[in-house]
Amino acid sequence: MLILKHAVLKPNKINSKSLKNVMKFSPIYSNFCRKYSDNVNENVDFTKIPVERIRNFSIIAHVDHGKSTLADRLLEYTGAIKKGVNQVLDKLQVERERGITVKAQSASLLYKYDGEVFLLNLIDTPGHVDFSNEVSRSLSACQGVILLVDANSGVQAQTVANFYLAFGSDLVIIPVLNKIDLKNADPVRVCNQLRSLFDIEPESVLKVSAKLGTGIKEILQAIITRIPSPQVDRSTAFRALLFDSSYDRYRGVLSLIYVKYGEVCVGDSIKSYHTKNDYEIKTLSVLRPDEVPVNKLVAGQIGLVGCNMRSSKEAYIGDTLHHSNNDALEPLQGFHPARPMVFAGIYPMDQSQHVNLRGAIEKLTLNDSAVTVDIDTSPALGHGWRLGFLGLLHLEVFSQRLQQEYGAEPIITAPSVTYKIKLKPTKQNMKDGTDIVFINNPANFPENHAIEECFEPMVLGTIITPDKYLGPIISLCMERRGVQKNATNIDNDRVMLQYDLPLCEIVVDFHDTLKTISSGYASFDYEDNGYHSSSLVKLAILLNGTLVDELSSIVHVTKSQTIARRTVCKLKDIIPRQMVQIAIQASANGKVLARENIKPYRKDVTAKLYGGDVTRRMKLLAQQAAGKRK
Q1: Which of 21, 225, 345, 596 could form an SS bridge with 568, CB 3.0 to 4.6 Å?
Q2: Helices (H) and strands (E) in the chain — how many of each?
């Protein structure tokens, strides 16, 4: 009782072991985790649940606001899992280690309300900006969302982005404040932020603690009463939206579909609208969150389909599946597939590991359709691949999964972005229509005399920060060639800034620098803003006059001198001394911008001299020079 009293009065002062003991013996938590048999019968036929009692929803929030914890409590409350299990939907090792959600996961929940059994299809989504495509495709199968906001941190940049993503899709938004049990939580302040930014009235905001399990019942009731049932028709021909896929080594590609019209059964022959391929359905299942095999899926449901697809290229995200004998059907309105923003070269540590690394990349891309793969070759690193990612965190997570899940040890080059180059008109490119080229590898950058105009990708960045860090953050954005578009006061302490920023300036270390100068309080989110004209040059690195493409980069002309000086100084520290002098040069448009020399190892042939004429010294040095020339 003493521990329980201490936990209630000062919940942030107890450690995790004490908290587990409190939650184990607390009557609130014991009542919260009641047995599944008291709520819903286990043997419910999913196909018998009418459309009016189906709800499809997602949880969206900024990173680390408690999405996965809330999903765990919803699963526990509805009896889908046993109590005490954490991060159920975060199945990857990298997700558990970093405490972030990388891959969207779904689960079908059964909940009894007013004597009727409801089917609630939950899709947990990532919070980091790099995985916003996971959010957008999850929302395509939903009619409503839970907008989760930390009662301590308040509205963050990704909260704003996710809100407008859901708002633009005409989804019902249920605002929820999490972590109200913390000592520093300020629900009134955060509710005022929601009202000033999104016109959400404080009376409609639910207040919960996902860790302690308080307020979960109110969320489930709000899902049922506020979110509408899906607008589907079970009496027409089968059509379903394919919005996610994963790879199983024994069953091939498993497709997660949202059935919009009709029904589909095991043994049916279906066809892909995009690839025109026919498949026979081998397995159907509902995720609870583990797979539960079923014989039929009907309109309004979300389920997993196994139909012997061999590769993820066949499972086109946003595709429409229909019965093979109904070719005249119109495709469902899907969503735009993700476009890679950051590119990097990946090479094996040793060319003997090339086959193993190729197999690991092929298997991993089956579970991550957002990664693009092109074959690349380097004189220094051998055969490899040029991979496209959604952001720098996406690249880090991908490389970490390569090491953890497949034991690969890749070499990864510096990340770059895709530039658009307009070439000067010639008879050949005017005839072929190739006067516009896209470059993501500095080695392919055209010569300066062949370029008419260069364009670089821009993003619209949103920064939310306490006002006391405003000066350093504005300086950082100006240093990165940002142009301010908007500034809004959220409340008395926080400001939202919007900047047009070049993508190449933010992919490497912008987020880390922003967190450093704001003591971790600022948050950042960005969205694509097209291509803008810019003055770009290729910064070539030469070692003893030999061009090294792996070290070259594409930079803005105003920063070429600074980056050239920084690069050659860094290389001077990294490259070991040799028996001959090494000249490190950085040049742009044929002009050397910076140079450093690495002095050679040199035997002191004059050490034995103790006197005499200077000609003896000159003779020994001449002999040494002749030997070096030889």
Answers
A1: 596
A2: 16, 31
In sequence order, the 6+-apart residues with CB closer than 8 A to the CB of 583 are 542, 543, 544, 545, 595, 596, 597
Contacts of 296 (CB under 8 A, 6+ apart): 47, 263, 264, 265, 266, 284
Are the beta carbons of 454 and 421 closer than 8 angstroms? yes
Retrieve residue 69's tokens.
């914890």
Q: Is 340 exposed, middle or buried (0-12, 13-18, 19+ CB in 10 A)?
A: middle
d(CA 214, CA 211): 8
How many CA atoms are closer than 13 Å to the CA of 484, on its beta-carbon side? 14
Q: 519 in helix, strand or coil?
A: coil
Binding residues for GTP: 61-68, 124-128, 178-181
Per-residue pLDDT tens digits for 507-558: 877 887 888 888 877 888 788 888 999 999 999 999 998 888 878 888 999 9
Cα–Cα distance measured from residue 530 to residue 509, given in angstroms and rounded to the nearest whole number: 21
Residue numbers belonging to the annotated binding site:
61-68, 124-128, 178-181
**DSSP tag of 288:** S
Q: Domains in the chain and their CATH numbers?
A: 1-32 (no CATH), 46-226 (3.40.50.300), 239-323 (2.40.30.10), 342-412 (3.30.70.870), 419-534 (3.30.70.240), 536-598 (3.30.70.2570)
Residues 6 or more apart from 453 whose CB is under 8 A from it?
Answer: 421, 422, 533
Q: What is the dihedral of CA 17, 22, 24, 25, to 10 degrees?
A: 140
Classify residue 462 by its DSSP letter: E
Q: Helix crossing, 354-366 with 392-406: angle to 10°? A: 120
Amino acid (one-letter) located at 429? N
What's this model's pTM, rounded to 2 decimal places?
Answer: 0.68
Among 282, 294, 165, 147, smallest CA distance to 227 is for 147
Beta strands 410-412 and 342-348, pairing class: antiparallel
